[in-house]
Write a structure and sequence with these properties.
- This protein has 362 residues and is of the alpha/beta class.
- The protein has two domains: 14-254, Aspartate Aminotransferase, domain 2 (3-Layer(aba) Sandwich); 256-357, Alpha-Beta Complex (Aspartate Aminotransferase, domain 1).
- Helix content is 43%, strand content 16%.
- The protein has 13 helices and 13 strands.
- It has helices spanning 13-18, 29-46, 59-68, 84-95, 113-122, 145-154, 174-177, 203-211, 221-228, 239-255, 257-277, 304-315, 341-357; strands at residues 2-4, 51-56, 77-81, 101-104, 128-132, 134-135, 140-141, 158-162, 181-185, 196-201, 293-297, 317-321, 330-334.
- The strands form three sheets. It has a seven-stranded mixed β-sheet with strand order 2-10-9-8-5-3-4, with helices on both faces. A four-stranded mixed β-sheet has the order 1-12-13-11. A two-stranded antiparallel ribbon has the order 6-7.
- The longest helix is centred in the last third of the chain and has 21 residues, at 257-277.
- The structure holds pyridoxal-5'-phosphate (PLP).
- Pyridoxal-5'-phosphate is lined by residues 7, 58-60, 63, 85, 132, 134, 136, 162, 164-165, 185.
- Pyridoxal-5'-phosphate binds at residues 7, 58-60, 63, 85, 132, 134, 136, 162, 164-165, 185.
Length: 362
């Protein structure tokens, strides 16, 4: 079965198998070596000198950690949302008791740095900016993130970013852009199974954590910091997934980050141009289309559920539908992680054959 999803993505066999190595003592020297080597490789991928911590949780756990360790009920926060995962971040901020200011864009649009500047000028008490880098639900990338972060920093804000589906598929220059807290998830560009979240934390963010009053325990990052100093995690980690991560990071290093970004850009561009040639429109505004996933508008006479079913049952290919209110209105073609031109060609063939099979003509 070919997974043309924006996660979970396909896992190469040697990475999958590396997860089946013999178990080790999670408090022993082998684990300390493993944790220290993968944490340092993760820093390279995040383009940061900040510590990167590994949580045994899915991406949402990482998002929760990013919020509950920094934002207290009395804080003023700007949440920028361009889709369903931005809305999830908003829910997490609201859970702390904080009453955020929300800058919301319609599906397919990206955030604009001038809008952010205006909100921050008008609301001088805002001290946190929370945003999604790559909005998987709409196939839209917040390409103005560097400008937005720079504006946020000039207003003295801490910048918290969901890079769950962008890291390793496109460049996320954590230090250069001034991103304080950045989250990713293992089942996206990392070529491994779901179950781990990665989170980078700046010095400024660590200081804020000491004053943050929001209750937390499992996701208390200060506990993670204390443990990392001993090459450990505070709670029993998913050791088998750490093995997979170690192997995946070796592959990432070998291919090189710039080559990986170029491969994703090529696969994404090929997908977009072929789909447009087929007569479809994309959901994302031009210039903001994601290199991880392409969201395609479904014409009124296209039955998306039927299309996905035929692709899965007859052409062994799994595409994603739309989430929430986008259900039935779009379908999504994933092109991140362990993917090459041949996979894109096969995905496009499966899409064309499935459309033919259900009698859809543009
Ligand atoms: C941008 C983004 N944020 C957050 C998540 C949530 O991650 P998870 O499903 O691993 O909890 C996802 C997963 O699809 C995502 O794409």
């Amino acid at each position: 079965m070919k997974l043309r999803l924006p996660g979970p993505t396909e896992v190469p066999e040697h990475i999958a198998l590396s997860g089946s190595k013999a178990m080790i003592n999670h408090r022993g020297p082998e684990m300390a070596e493993l944790v220290s080597s993968i944490s340092s490789d993760l820093q390279t991928c995040f383009e940061t000198k900040n510590e990167v911590h590994i949580l045994t949780a899915s991406g949402t756990g990482g998002l929760e950690a990013a919020i509950v360790n920094h934002i207290s009920a009395s804080d003023e926060v700007l949440v920028i949302t361009i889709g369903i995962f931005g809305n999830r971040f908003l829910q997490l901020v609201e859970m702390t008791g904080a009453k955020p200011t929300v800058l919301k864009y319609d599906f397919g649009h990206a955030a604009n740095a001038n809008d952010v500047e205006k909100v921050l000028k008008d609301n001088s008490h805002i001290k946190f900016v929370v945003m999604t880098h790559n909005e998987t639900s709409t196939g839209t990338t917040n390409n103005q993130i560097a400008d937005i972060a720079s504006i946020a920093k000039s207003f003295g804000c801490l910048v918290i970013v969901d890079a769950v589906s962008s890291l390793t598929a496109m460049s996320v220059e954590v230090d250069k852009w001034g991103l304080d807290v950045v989250v990713s998830g293992s089942q996206k560009g990392w070529m491994m199974a779901p179950g781990l979240a990665f989170i980078s934390i700046s010095e400024e963010a660590w200081d804020i954590q000491k004053k943050c009053t929001t209750p937390r325990f499992y996701f208390d990052l200060l506990k993670h910091k204390a443990s990392l100093a001993n090459g450990q995690t505070p709670w029993t980690p998913a050791v088998s997934l750490f093995y997979q991560l170690e192997t995946a990071l070796k592959d990432i290093k070998k291919e090189g980050m710039n080559n990986i970004f170029a491969r994703h850009a090529f696969c994404a561009e090929k997908t977009r141009s072929s789909i447009k040639e087929m007569g479809f429109d994309l959901l994302a505004d031009e210039g903001y289309e994601s290199n991880s996933v392409t969201a395609i508008k479904a014409p009124d006479d296209l039955n998306v559920a039927q299309l996905l079913k035929v692709a899965r049952t007859k052409y062994n290919t799994i595409f994603a539908g739309g989430q929430g209110s986008l259900g039935g209105k779009i379908f999504r073609f994933g092109h991140l992680g362990y993917v090459n031109e041949n996979d894109i060609d096969m995905g496009l063939d499966a899409l064309k054959s499935s459309l033919n099979e259900i009698g859809f003509r543009k």
